[in-house]
Write a structure and sequence with these properties.
- The complex is a heterodimer of chains A (385) and B (291).
- Helix content of chain A is 38%, strand content 21%.
- Chain A has helices at 17-28, 42-51, 65-78, 88-104, 131-136, 152-169, 179-183, 250-265, 268-271, 291-305, 323-330, 346-354, 373-384; strands at residues 11-16, 32-35, 58-61, 82-86, 108-116, 122-126, 145-147, 172-178, 185-190, 234-236, 274-277, 284-289, 310-315, 317-319, 335-340, 360-364.
- In chain A, strands 2, 3, 4, 5, 6, 7, 8 and 14 form an eight-stranded mixed beta sheet that branches. In chain A, strands 11-13-12-15-16 form a five-stranded mixed beta sheet, with helices on both faces.
- In chain A, β12 (284-289), α10 (291-305) and β13 (310-315) form a beta-alpha-beta unit.
- In chain A, α1 runs parallel beside α6, α10 crosses α13 and α11 (323-330) crosses α12 (346-354).
- The radius of gyration of chain A is 21 Å and the shape is globular.
- Chain B contains ten helices and eight strands.
- In chain B, strands 2-1-3-4-6-5-8-7 form an eight-stranded mixed beta sheet, with helices on both faces.
- The longest helix of chain B is centred in the first third of the chain and has 15 residues, at 32-46.
- Classes of the chains: A alpha/beta (385), B alpha/beta (291).
- Chains A and B meet through α3, α4 and β10 of A and β2, α3, α5 and α10 of B.
- β10 (234-236) of chain A pairs parallel with β2 of chain B, so a sheet runs across the interface.
Chain lengths: 385, 291
């Protein structure tokens, strides 16, 4: 279906990534957000707090991130599309409720505007060091979907994508920004509402006496009930059967947790997003994402000017990781260069997917500034030799 | 014979329970089930449309209430029932949102959420079963455990101060505060009815035996002995100053309705403020629900 025009600020704007993310959420139909202030993410909800009463919705500032990350889930079960926004220290506190959203199949969006860590780290400076935390940070086995915008335009576009994936697959979806993408200001084009595709909630059409709250459809995703309509649904973070009732047996656990993984794993080709450029015939392919891809672009151009055949592979979904695509590339190139603002996170996935078919060179530092193109260039030139 | 057949009628609370989940997990002598019975009777007597009642629980013995009541029910994470309920209520205000959880869940790990929801005066009905201990995990000291009792984590006796729940909740801003025990089933049912008639953050503490872990370890008898104890030491003092109602190991249990006051709830305050500031630009909504 198309976006509700009320939330769509159609036009050409000059926005920073945080504000563009907020507009993406509104365009996607988000009418509830619960937040807790944290640099460098707060601008998203500051704008939402100003905008949403003029659109028809609610923002509430909660007492901490534990509360923010579950109030939104209450709102989702109440019928709203909802999200929250945070940065590293707050993201750490939210891990508990990422697990809850996974287990209860609550469609919701978490935005993490990454800054340097561990702990309080670098509150005002960029990093991409929460990339493994988003994948593995809550306890238990699960899969997530995480998108990585590299511009304010993509902060808008991919926030809509995140909401759509959340509704389609009934799982938490993450928008993994960073301080620079959040605070850089660029042109953002917001299309008219009829050009914005919005995935509606999968409300069941069955009457209450025929409905099982956690019985999946063919795509392994169950439909949702409407609260307050007599479905008497039970939603629990405990291991549960198709009725939603606690059933703590190894068989039910295995069936449930496998399905929660499989609904993403088996749809990986539909979910995975990436940008690939001049991969054919490349000697070296540079893998990057988010703000780092903007810097890598310069290094790639410099290397091409020096006669090296360099391809670009940008992760748009970091999770699920485009494993198949990286494996194919690794079989054809002399080397891969992985650039990220951390001391080695997604590079582990690249190495795993490459499986020794091509060497993988890592270029990274612990955050606080974006890369220097020269450092990436040097790595490209060294592996191209 | 036919008279006997006619007598086998359904218990009126059955329609409020997920009978396919009975028997429940609570121990013999526990007061949680007793409180659920009072809750069901309150819904019957108040003729409340149960489709609009949602139950939110945290974790622990009382956290399991959500799994036995036949309403939309949410068994959330430890301590976080109140923020979940806050989101549910704000997104879908037609719902009567009841938070049903235990003392450890609401006042230790969830204590910050509770005082903030009371401060904001979110329209939530909070029923706190206080068994004076962490029961699900085996009888550890909680924020309400009185002095001079033995618990698994204070094997030589408790010594630090415990919370006086009505005092704390009143100070935080609740509009309705009452306390009963598992012995006071009718008074509790009436109190729950009153709570449903209030708008704003309402709170009922229900003192409940934990014969398995609290009474047994402290040689205080079984569930029945505890009921007799409640009967003997409880004094109904409606309107009592909450600062005077702290619980001790064996002293008086002051019960009754302590606070019943009017204060605009969060949603009304939000609405009035936005209307005042935004005027015609304010888009009022019945709910934040999506298509």
């Amino acid at each position: 279906m198309h976006a509700d025009p009320a939330g769509v600020m159609t036009g050409t704007h000059f926005l920073d990534g945080d504000h563009a993310c907020c507009e993406g959420a509104l365009a996607a139909g988000a009418r509830f957000s619960s937040g807790y202030p944290i640099t460098p993410s707060t601008e998203v909800v500051e704008r939402f707090a100003a905008r949403v009463p003029t659109v028809g919705g609610t923002f509430i500032q909660m007492e901490d991130e534990l509360a923010a990350s579950i109030a939104l889930q209450g709102a989702v079960w109440g019928g709203a599309k909802a999200f929250t926004v945070t940065s590293g220290p707050g993201f750490s506190l939210m891990m508990e409720h990422i697990g809850l959203a996974v287990m209860t199949e609550t469609p919701c969006v978490f935005v993490d505007v990454q800054r340097g860590g561990p702990s309080t780290g670098l509150p005002t400076l960029p990093a991409q060091a929460d990339m493994m935390q988003v994948r593995w940070g809550s306890h238990g086995d699960y899969e997530v979907i995480a998108v990585c915008p590299n511009s304010p335009q993509e902060c808008f576009d991919l926030t809509i994508t995140a909401f759509n994936y959340a509704e389609q697959y009934r799982c938490p979806v993450f928008v993994m920004m960073d301080e620079v993408v959040g605070h850089m200001t660029e042109k953002v084009v917001i299309p008219p509402p009829e050009q914005i595709e919005v995935t509606p909630r999968r409300y069941t059409t069955l009457p209450p006496d025929e409905f099982l709250a956690f019985k999946p459809g063919d795509d392994l995703v169950p439909d949702m009930p409407r609260t307050g309509e007599g479905y008497n649904v039970h939603v629990t973070g405990l291991t549960h059967d198709e009725r939603g009732y606690p059933d703590m047996t190894p068989a039910t656990q295995d069936k449930l947790v496998r399905r929660l993984q499989d609904k993403i794993k088996k749809n990986v080709d539909k979910i995975t997003l990436y940008e690939a450029e001049q991969i054919e015939g490349a000697e070296v392919v540079v893998v990057s994402y988010g703000i780092t891809s903007r810097v890598a672009q310069r290094a790639i151009e410099l290397a091409r000017n020096k006669g090296v055949k360099v391809g670009k592979f940008r992760l748009i979904t970091a999770w699920p990781f485009p494993e198949k695509q990286i494996a194919e590339i690794a079989a054809k190139v002399k080397a891969l260069v992985v650039v990220e603002l951390n001391l080695g996170q997604m590079v582990r996935e690249v190495e795993r997917a490459a499986a020794g078919k091509a060497p993988v060179r890592f270029v990274g530092h612990a955050g606080g500034s974006v890369h220097r193109p020269e450092d990436i260039l040097q790595a490209i030139m060294e592996v191209a030799r | 014979m036919s008279e006997l057949t006619e007598l086998t009628v359904q218990n009126p609370v059955e329609e409020f329970l997920r009978m396919d989940r009975i028997p429940h997990i609570w121990c013999p002598g526990c007061g949680i089930g007793t409180s659920v019975n009072s809750f069901a009777h309150a819904l019957i007597d108040a003729k409340i449309d149960t489709r609009n009642v949602a139950i939110v629980s945290g974790i622990g013995c009382t956290g399991r209430v959500a799994g036995y009541v036949k309403q939309d029910s949410f068994h959330t994470t430890h301590g976080r029932a109140i923020p979940f309920a806050t989101g549910l209520k704000l997104a879908n205000p037609k719902l009567n949102v009841v938070v049903y959880s235990g003392d450890g869940d609401l006042f230790a790990i969830g204590g910050n959420h509770l005082i903030h929801a009371a401060r904001r005066n979110v329209d939530l009905k909070v029923i706190c079963i206080n068994n004076l201990i962490y029961a699900m995990t085996g009888g550890q000291t909680g924020p309400t455990t009185p002095n001079d009792v033995i618990t698994s984590t204070n094997p030589y006796g408790t010594f630090d101060a415990s919370f006086n729940l009505p005092y704390l909740v009143e100070a935080a801003g609740a509009v309705y505060v009452a306390r009963w025990t598992a012995f006071h089933v009718r008074q509790l049912a009436r109190s729950i009815q009153e709570m449903f008639a209030k708008k704003g953050f309402s709170f009922i503490e229900v003192l409940s035996p934990c014969p398995t872990l609290y009474q047994r370890r402290n040689k205080m008898g079984d569930g029945l002995d505890t009921m007799k104890f409640y009967k003997e030491v409880s004094k109904i003092r409606n309107g009592a100053a909450t600062k005077d109602v702290a619980l001790t190991k064996s002293g008086e249990i002051t019960v009754g309705k302590f606070v019943d006051r009017e204060r605009s709830d969060y949603r009304d305050l939000l609405h009035d403020r936005l209307l005042d500031s935004l005027g015609d630009d304010y888009v009022e909504t019945e709910a934040c629900t999506c298509q």
